[in-house]
């Protein structure tokens, strides 16, 4: 089992995206999985020019020579691709979106319709499991709507008001969350699937009372900053 992990937070090892990614990879490591992880901001990834050369001129190959040269083959050979992102303005961070746009060479130009939706055929046959782990600052799940829509078939790990993990004692608001993330790393590396019950634990929802408490706590802290 091979796992390719990306942390797209510009805060790299100082952010909450990292805390969650580390937990997931810890679980995967317990199975003996082979793990490779990268900070997206350290990678040389040019923006897609929209030239479609990777479809018509040089099928499967982009015009750019940069880190996507080694990332793309790994994205098709590895078993699990883990994408960690902060939510910026209700979306995945642009560093990750740029990387994602550069995956066009993995698709074929041909279209097919499935369940009323049109898709492109994949160039590679291997089924790679994607994990999308997102964190945000507001306490509402609505902040993840775009991210979920971009990766509908991925396993979602979604922690709102994620800064709670930085505060002393903050873990009491999300009891068992980090253990569930670690277990997800273990289970996906072992069996490539999770139970519905387990998936539900990875998408954190707060009650209205907790949200109110969080907002008050945040505002108090902001006044002191
Ligand atoms: C420019 C910017 C935009 C943000 N937009 C949102 C947002 O739309 N919704 C939200 O809940 N949090 C938003 N946040 C908060 C981040 O998602 C939050 O700080 C997150 O923990 C950052 O991840 P990291 O700790 O891994 O760096 C934003 C932060 C920044 C800097």
Q: What keywords describe this structure?
A:
225 residues, alpha/beta, Rossmann fold, six-stranded mixed β-sheet, two-stranded antiparallel ribbon, 8 helices, globular, binds flavin mononucleotide
General form: globular
Helix coverage percent of residues?
25-40%
CATH superfamily grouping = Flavodoxin domain
Uncertain segments: none
CATH topology title: Rossmann fold
Which value, in Å, is the CA radius of gyration? 18 Å
Total domain modules? 1
**Which structural class should the secondary elements be placed in?**
alpha/beta
Characterization of the model:
This protein is α/β, with parallel strands linked by helices and 225 residues long. The chain has a single domain, classed as Rossmann fold (3-Layer(aba) Sandwich), CATH 3.40.50. The protein has eight helices and eight strands; from the N terminus they run E-H-E-H-H-E-E-H-E-E-E-H-E-H-H-H. Strands 1, 2, 3, 4, 7 and 8 form a six-stranded mixed β-sheet that branches. A two-stranded antiparallel sheet has the order 5-6. The longest helix is centred in the last third of the chain and has 17 residues, at 208-224. The chain is globular and about 60 Å long. It starts with a strand and ends with a helix. The relative contact order is 0.16. The model has no long low-confidence stretch (mean pLDDT 97). Bound molecules: flavin mononucleotide (FMN).
């Amino acid at each position: 089992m091979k796992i390719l992990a990306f942390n797209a937070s510009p805060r790299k090892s100082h952010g909450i995206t990292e805390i969650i990614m580390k937990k997931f990879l810890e679980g995967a490591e317990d199975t003996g999985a082979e793990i490779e992880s990268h900070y997206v901001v350290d990678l040389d990834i040019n923006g897609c020019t929209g030239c479609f050369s990777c479809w018509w001129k040089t099928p499967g190959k982009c015009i750019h020579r940069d880190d996507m040269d080694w990332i793309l083959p790994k994205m098709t050979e590895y078993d699990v691709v883990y994408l960690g992102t902060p939510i910026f303005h209700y979306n995945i961070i642009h560093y990750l979106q740029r990387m994602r746009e550069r995956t066009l060479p993995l698709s074929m130009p041909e279209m097919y319709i499935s369940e009323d939706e049109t898709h492109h055929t994949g160039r590679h046959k291997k089924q790679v499991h994607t994990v999308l782990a997102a964190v945000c600052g507001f306490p509402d799940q609505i902040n993840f709507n775009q991210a979920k829509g971009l990766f509908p078939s991925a396993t979602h790990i979604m922690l709102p008001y994620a800064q709670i993990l930085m505060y002393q004692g903050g873990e009491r608001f999300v009891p068992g969350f980090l253990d569930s993330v670690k277990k997800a790393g273990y289970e996906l590396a072992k069996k490539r699937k999770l139970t519905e019950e387990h998936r539900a634990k990875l998408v954190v929802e707060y009650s209205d009372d907790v949200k109110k408490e969080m907002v008050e706590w945040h505002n108090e802290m902001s006044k002191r900053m």
